[in-house]
Amino acid sequence: MSLWHRVRGPAFALALGGLGGAAGWLAGVPLGVLLGAMVAVGVVAARGGRLGGASIEFPQQLRLFFVPVIGVGIGGAFTPEVVAQMPGWWPSLLALCLYIPLAHLSGYAIYRLGGLPKPEAFFGAVPGGLIESVALGEEAGADVRMLVLLQFLRLILTIVAVPLIFLVLTGHAVGSASGATLAAKVALDPADALVLIAAGCIGFWVGRLLHLPAAPMTGPMAASACVHLLGWAEGVPPGWAVALTQIVVGTGLGARFIGMNGALLRRGFALASGNVAVALLLAFGFGLAMAKITGEPVTAVFLAFAPGGLAEMSLIALSLQMGIVFVTVHHVARIVLSVALAKLGARWIMPG
């Protein structure tokens, strides 16, 4: 097979995602680059994955080369002042221990009322740790297609809903790539760029070696935080790098709809919409309750609890410059707690 035959599918997907991202940005849609790419690719994928004579193919491993950009950008927000505030976050981290089972059990109840068997309902409702949830559900005999659909719709519907909610609450659209630019203290010079590239690569490798949750992002984030706190770098990835990352992430999410028939999509969408609505209402309630205790705005706590993807929620935090480290730390904790609860529940779900 020629090189062109190997790359034309991914090239078409990324080109379509780029056009969608540009349209979303020009239209001023909240988080327009990511959502535009996701919608453009998702619509074509759901209709068979072909447009004209071209077909969508997207190797999900490609995402691994770009997600570290987000981690490196968030690492630039670690300052001695932020680190000094972290001990005061224990009440909201403790509150996650209540939020996670509430969100999980409410989603389970919705899916059971919707007619799903126990395995699909239980593992489809896990509010974090998509890959681990699908793997555990497959072991328990769940329909993997429905499980993957429910988990991806949790991410996608949250990613769509949260920027719109912020638009209503704050009156400001969540930007496309402004976060990294705003976070930078100085322009990114070649020396800083080399340090950050090294930090991203080393952090990625160490994160995978240590099996950190969401290692492609958390490893580079930790390494970037270290080099910034040590004063070895002051800049962060430029806005165009964050925008390109959003196109890749959005394209990857949209491509997940390839091969899913209309009946499955409609049923999954109806069920996941109810689950996400309840989870976001719970997140907003916890935001109201915890804001006074933590000293963080209600919107920051809400974003820290919203059951979206770590990379995507962190992109929103970057864009809004709203408690970037606070939000990311809570989402890492959410993933760890969600997977731990799912593993405990697997004993109840597994037959025999």
Secondary structure blueprint with pairings:
Blueprint: H1 3-26, H2 32-46, E1 50-51, E2 54-55, H3 67-75, H4 80-85, H5 90-113, H6 118-124, H7 130-139, H8 144-170, H9 178-183, H10 190-209, H11 215-229, H12 239-255, H13 262-294, H14 298-305, H15 310-320, H16 324-349
Antiparallel strand pairs: 1-2
Pfam families: AbrB
Transmembrane segments: 12-44, 64-83, 89-111, 152-173, 193-210, 270-291, 297-320
Keywords: Membrane, Transmembrane, Transmembrane helix
Task: Describe the protein.
With 352 residues, this protein is an all-alpha fold. It has one domain. It has a two-stranded antiparallel ribbon with strand order 1-2. A hairpin with a 2-residue loop joins β1 and β2. The radius of gyration is 20 Å and the shape is globular. The N and C termini lie far apart (47 Å).
